[in-house]
């Protein structure tokens, strides 16, 4: 039986994004929300709304029982988890399917496999994806770590097998610092994820972060939708994303795209996924796979014309992929700016009431946001409040349009990261596309240093 009502197990702009795609397909939506999100835009627009708990995510958006109960009460026949929260929780996906509700996401076993970094690396290697040199799996004692590090060469990177977001990661420049830094990484990992299992890999000096969007039907057919460049990051959090990458040739795009699509076909992967690589000196190295929709999916939609959320819903409904690889045409350039409610340079959170809101517009300008004048941004969740996405026939045209759109975007009542993006568009390295994953933090450090020197003079 076809999906007729989707429960959206998320909040903010992604909940609204899913609602819009569902309504365009003639599918009803159910919004679940905490007490802090009672006035959220997606809650107002959904066909049904259910409060599932207090502001704390652990008691609302991460509450398995409350979400399943809401689905049963409202008669939802599918659940879309968006990104974050429960989107990569294999146990929750199992529970959803055990209740005869369609899970709009990958098979639970694939979420489980790719969510464990050690297992993901083994799986990726077996599927033919290029790997960063490192340990074959988890390393349990310091003697073994020293052997592995000596073999691959310093500097090395100690990484937690669970979790993400940069926690449980330490760069080890030399053997005499190995034990101290690994213990620090283990402590961070245990505190954040309850698991201090570590593995080691070669530390790449100055790479770019390149990721490929993939889609599978779960029955051995898969495609890729090209790459995104997400190298402008701060503390491993993406700030600015673009597609295609300024440094990837069409030849490498199709070669690597073919490799990742073949890997997903072999896995019989279902739905949307993103395979992330570090790229340095023309070589790709697998780092992880995200078994969900990405925040930055709109740039892929812009250059392919494909609605990724709509495709997710179709695949979960048992349908075939709507396109074949040869049908996909990459056209133009797209950039996304993540707009956060925070100080643009200190990054201190800035929740509060939106006093005035004017959304940028014009040709090929898209804003994904649940903001409106009078809305109060709660302090309990991620600080991202909007995504500004622009498209142009060329990268240069796209940058010009982005500059104009940022000038038009007005959010008053809270601090936002709009001034940061405006400053980035003045930097020659950003304009030329000559940046790596280290660039933004180094630029911010230099900027802070210059400001301190100016204030002291």
TrEMBL record:
<keyword id="KW-0444">Lipid biosynthesis</keyword>
<dbReference type="GO" id="GO:2001295">
    <property type="term" value="P:malonyl-CoA biosynthetic process"/>
</dbReference>
<keyword id="KW-0460">Magnesium</keyword>
<dbReference type="InterPro" id="IPR005482">
    <property type="entry name" value="Biotin_COase_C"/>
</dbReference>
<dbReference type="InterPro" id="IPR016185">
    <property type="entry name" value="PreATP-grasp_dom_sf"/>
</dbReference>
<keyword id="KW-0436">Ligase</keyword>
<dbReference type="InterPro" id="IPR051602">
    <property type="entry name" value="ACC_Biotin_Carboxylase"/>
</dbReference>
<keyword id="KW-0276">Fatty acid metabolism</keyword>
<comment type="function">
    <text>This protein is a component of the acetyl coenzyme A carboxylase complex; first, biotin carboxylase catalyzes the carboxylation of the carrier protein and then the transcarboxylase transfers the carboxyl group to form malonyl-CoA.</text>
</comment>
<keyword id="KW-0067">ATP-binding</keyword>
<dbReference type="GO" id="GO:0005524">
    <property type="term" value="F:ATP binding"/>
</dbReference>
<dbReference type="InterPro" id="IPR005479">
    <property type="entry name" value="CPAse_ATP-bd"/>
</dbReference>
<feature type="domain" description="ATP-grasp">
    <location>
        <begin position="121"/>
        <end position="317"/>
    </location>
</feature>
<keyword id="KW-0092">Biotin</keyword>
<dbReference type="GO" id="GO:0004075">
    <property type="term" value="F:biotin carboxylase activity"/>
</dbReference>
<keyword id="KW-0275">Fatty acid biosynthesis</keyword>
<dbReference type="Pfam" id="PF00289">
    <property type="entry name" value="Biotin_carb_N"/>
</dbReference>
<keyword id="KW-0547">Nucleotide-binding</keyword>
<comment type="pathway">
    <text>Lipid metabolism; malonyl-CoA biosynthesis; malonyl-CoA from acetyl-CoA: step 1/1.</text>
</comment>
<feature type="domain" description="Biotin carboxylation">
    <location>
        <begin position="2"/>
        <end position="445"/>
    </location>
</feature>
<dbReference type="InterPro" id="IPR011764">
    <property type="entry name" value="Biotin_carboxylation_dom"/>
</dbReference>
<keyword id="KW-0479">Metal-binding</keyword>
<dbReference type="InterPro" id="IPR011054">
    <property type="entry name" value="Rudment_hybrid_motif"/>
</dbReference>
<protein>
    <recommendedName>
        <fullName>Biotin carboxylase</fullName>
        <ecNumber>6.3.4.14</ecNumber>
    </recommendedName>
</protein>
<dbReference type="GO" id="GO:0006633">
    <property type="term" value="P:fatty acid biosynthetic process"/>
</dbReference>
<dbReference type="InterPro" id="IPR005481">
    <property type="entry name" value="BC-like_N"/>
</dbReference>
<dbReference type="Pfam" id="PF02785">
    <property type="entry name" value="Biotin_carb_C"/>
</dbReference>
<dbReference type="InterPro" id="IPR011761">
    <property type="entry name" value="ATP-grasp"/>
</dbReference>
<dbReference type="GO" id="GO:0046872">
    <property type="term" value="F:metal ion binding"/>
</dbReference>
<keyword id="KW-0443">Lipid metabolism</keyword>
<comment type="subunit">
    <text>Acetyl-CoA carboxylase is a heterohexamer of biotin carboxyl carrier protein, biotin carboxylase and the two subunits of carboxyl transferase in a 2:2 complex.</text>
</comment>
<dbReference type="Pfam" id="PF02786">
    <property type="entry name" value="CPSase_L_D2"/>
</dbReference>
<dbReference type="InterPro" id="IPR004549">
    <property type="entry name" value="Acetyl_CoA_COase_biotin_COase"/>
</dbReference>
